[in-house]
Amino acid sequence: MLRALLSEGEVVAAPPGPGPGYWAGGPSAVLHEGTWWLAYRLRRPVDRGRGYANVVARSDDGVRFIEVARVTSEDLGAASLERPALVVRPDGGWRLYVSCSTAGSKHWWVEALDAGSPAALASGRRTVVLPGGRDEAWKDVVVRVDDGAWAMWACRHPLDGGDDEADRMSSWYATSADGLRWDLRGEALGPGEGWDRRGARVSAVWPAGGGAYEALYDGRASAAENWYERTGAAAGPPGRLRPTAGPVPEEPGPALRYASVVPVPGGLRVYVERTRADGAHDLRTVYVPRPDGESQSV
């Protein structure tokens, strides 16, 4: 499956401008009652607003999306927004988790917006779910609700080494009864020894059967590769994922990151943020068919 992410696929959302620093990406996809829903982040260069919006959009085919809601950094009092996570609540309502940056620092927090429909999320009820603190920042969460049980994989950035070390990252596993009050269970995936030695950020998780999960994650080998992460695969119990393959691309350079995976009959639909020729990032989707008789794995 990893190799399939290198195919051109189809552009789902274009960046808000040409050139480096303009991004459309950080997707979170949901297929609910036959309709596709997608939340993603829009970003400009650092001196032009950074991550200024999270968009929620709908589609009948998983490729052509129409925007239905937009949450801005100004709305939430944040210096920048990063990857959102979109979830259908067990009671039929909707929730959008938003990663928010504190002005003048490397601190990030995560809050949830709750509403009765995707279109109403921009004005939804706000709850801070991961406040972070002086020594840690939280962002880029992946959230699942299976049979009423809530699970989260959250990216933790340690802040105890100063700003020059704040790009380090690992992924922590958490559980919850309601998706608002979370119990952190521990590190689910940490830095490796090679291409991901600077950090590992879980980007997608889906069941593989027997209590195990498949996952994709972003990694980088150095601070210089921040914003240019590559994608690897992992598997295992939800709180103890282990790398199994990767990365793609094999050599550092263009970004291929923030994959969101939706199992569908016959395969997987994957949304991923990629660098395009002019240095901007666009959001693409790739359908990965499953060979007959094989599980939906990487």
Please characterize this protein's 3D structure.
The chain has 298 residues and is mostly beta strands. It has one domain: Glycosyl hydrolase domain, family 43 (Tachylectin-2, Chain A), CATH 2.115.10.20. The protein contains one helix and 20 strands. The protein has one helix at residues 73-76; strands spanning 10-13, 23-32, 35-43, 51-59, 66-72, 85-88, 94-101, 108-115, 125-130, 136-146, 149-158, 170-176, 182-189, 199-209, 212-220, 230-236, 242-248, 256-264, 267-275, 281-289. Strands 1-20-19-18 form a four-stranded antiparallel sheet, with no helix packed on it. A four-stranded antiparallel sheet has the order 2-3-4-5. The longest helix is centred in the N-terminal third of the chain and has 4 residues, at 73-76.
Record the SSE blueprint.
Layout: E1 10-13, E2 23-32, E3 35-43, E4 51-59, E5 66-72, H1 73-76, E6 85-88, E7 94-101, E8 108-115, E9 125-130, E10 136-146, E11 149-158, E12 170-176, E13 182-189, E14 199-209, E15 212-220, E16 230-236, E17 242-248, E18 256-264, E19 267-275, E20 281-289
Antiparallel strand pairs: 1-20, 2-3, 3-4, 4-5, 6-7, 7-8, 8-9, 10-11, 11-12, 12-13, 14-15, 15-16, 16-17, 18-19, 19-20
InterPro entries: Glyco_hydro_beta-prop_sf
Region (Disordered): 232-251
Organism: Vallicoccus soli
